[in-house]
Write a structure and sequence with these properties.
Layout (H helix, E strand, L loop, with lengths): L2 H6 L8 H8 L1 H22 L7 H5 L1 H18 L10 H17 L6 H29 L5 H30 L12 H24 L5 H6 L1 H7 L8 H32 L6 H22 L6 H10 L3 H31 L9 H24 L3 H8 L1 H18 L9 H15 L2 H7 L7 H8 L1 H21 L5 H17 L14
Length: about 525
């Protein structure tokens, strides 16, 4: 689009602080649900007789669900419009209703398999509510307010997560709710925390649904910055382009299928841990999708949902590809912490591996406190990071934050006092604050508004894939290299986060930070 034509388009209006708060408040409730899940799922599984070595494979429900649900919801929300309910808000609402129901059911699971099934359903509900929120910021805010918008989400995520993480500890120590129970029964403190979290989730999302609006497709098309991004030509135009690309998909799909089969054969032949089958399954699953996409394109069809999804993934913007590598190693570190913090802390700092013992449950409660501390950090620095980014750039700010998180995780292996862990968690919290805002602010500027929801869902591939990889290989690594010592999972996670920080230097942030302009 020419500069003259661009000037005829109107600029997307800046929103007030309260408008940004209202449109982001739903994340407060969503994070209450996520924080309760992250801090207590391993505890629930162990209470229901899960072995520590099996925890990663049980945790796979969440990332596998996200891998499937988020791009689909993003794709659907890009194509949704209702004059009353808008584009993204219907998904907020439906996801919140389902998530609240799941939060009431999960802590009442009577067996391990019921708990695993509920984790799957609960995570699906979280993803339905959460995925469109990222796209919603890109829809509503002008470029100069994007970093502030995602910083507001980080702030509210911190508030919600702190409250939820501390709930079992508060209920036990200030309201006398028991944190122990007979064998195979979830403690009352955990149950009541989930009930409170479910209500908070629903109320917060409904607040955003009823206090915020959305731009119509016509209004979105009228904004200058949207028009410029939409003017980027698609790489595939003619039927021959699609046929040629379909041949590539069939070739790559066949290679991935073969790799997955060989990988599974090696695992079976060497009698390696079953967790590793998941990696082979990923190769086979992606290979099948590419083969189907290739055959559809080879028949001259280009309007298939599967073709659109696979091609958009193939041709995602360069900035998104660079950020995806950063996300992969950042979230690998986080997932290592989420899976192994409870067994590592209860065994190596509190000295107990018995889920029925008071000492173990004291340690498990302390993990919730530590998670509350790292989740509290965004409350204090969420709006400081944009100021730092204005001075040194967003990618350097993100790099330094990831270094702080990596060193924080590694330091846990060097301490023996529970209170010293709080300092480690401050470092993790700095990284967490940046992970929730900086990558999304850099990414949004490189995306077409008409594909914002879909690409935000695809971007989450690089959140859930490292979780799947972590769940697949961490137990194997700990068993074969570290003698089953779960504390080393935190060290591995810290190293991964530091590596992610180094990768930040290679990210091309096409549009410089605009907040002060």
């Amino acid at each position: 689009m020419s500069e003259k034509a661009s000037t005829l388009k109107k600029q997307k209006p800046a929103l007030s602080w309260w408008q940004i708060f209202n449109m982001s408040f739903g994340f407060f409730g969503i994070q209450m649900g996520f924080a309760l899940q992250l801090a207590n799922t391993s505890r629930i599984f162990q209470t229901l007789s899960a072995a520590v070595s099996d925890l990663p494979i049980y945790w796979l429900a969440g990332p596998v669900t996200g891998l499937i649900i988020q791009p689909i919801i993003g794709y659907m929300s890009d194509r949704t419009w209702h004059s009353t309910f808008g584009r993204r808000r219907p998904y907020f609402f439906v996801g919140a209703l389902l998530a609240t129901l799941c939060l009431f059911i999960m802590p009442n699971s009577s067996s391990l398999w019921i708990a695993i099934g509920m984790l799957w359903i609960m995570d699906s509900s979280f993803n339905v509510a959460m995925e469109p929120f990222r796209a919603y910021v890109g829809d509503r805010l002008p470029n100069k307010q994007l970093t502030t918008g995602f910083a507001m989400q980080s702030f509210l995520i911190g508030v919600g997560a702190v409250l939820a993480s501390f709930l079992p500890y508060i209920l036990t120590n200030y309201f006398g709710v028991a944190n122990t129970a007979p064998e195979g029964v979830i403690p009352p403190s955990v149950k009541w925390a989930f009930y409170i979290g479910g209500v908070g989730f629903l109320i917060a999302v409904l607040y955003t649904v009823f206090t915020s609006k959305e731009y119509s497709p016509e209004e979105m098309a009228s904004f200058a910055d949207n028009s410029e991004k939409e003017a980027i030509e698609d790489p595939l135009i003619s039927d021959q382009d699609y046929i040629s690309n379909g041949t590539k998909h069939k070739t790559v799909g066949a290679i991935l299928l073969l790799l997955g089969a060989v990988f599974a054969f090696v695992i079976n032949s060497m009698e390696l841990q079953r967790d590793l089958y998941v990696l082979g399954g990923i190769f086979i699953f992606v290979g099948l999708l590419l083969l189907i996409s290739g055959f559809i394109q080879g028949n001259g069809k280009s309007d298939s949902v599967l073709v659109t999804i696979t091609n958009d993934l193939q041709f995602m913007p360069a900035t998104m590809k660079q950020l995806s590598a950063v996300q992969f190693f950042s979230w690998f570190g986080l997932f290592a912490m989420w899976i192994y913090s409870t067994p590592a802390v209860t065994e190596y700092i509190f000295g107990s591996t018995d889920p029925q013992s008071a000492l173990y449950n004291e340690g498990a409660d302390w993990v919730g406190v530590c998670f509350g501390v790292y989740n509290a950090v965004p409350i204090f620095i969420a709006f400081l990071l944009p100021v730092i980014a204005q001075k040194i750039s967003r990618k350097k700010t993100h790099m330094l934050a990831l270094f702080a998180g990596g060193l924080g995780l590694i330091s846990i292996s060097l301490i023996s006092s529970p209170k010293m862990m709080l300092l480690s968690m401050i470092g993790v919290g700095i990284a967490w604050t940046s992970i929730l805002s900086m990558p999304y602010a850099m990414l949004t500027n490189s995306l077409k508004p008409s594909k914002m929801g879909y690409y935000m869902g695809v971007f989450n591939f690089f959140i859930v894939l490292p979780q799947i990889v972590a769940a697949s290989i961490l137990a194997f690594m700990l068993d074969k290299i570290f003698g089953g010592a779960s504390i080393y999972a935190l060290v591995i996670g810290g190293a991964s986060m530091i590596f992610a920080g180094i990768l930040c230097l290679f990210v091309e942030d096409k549009e410089e930070y605009l907040e002060g302009e």
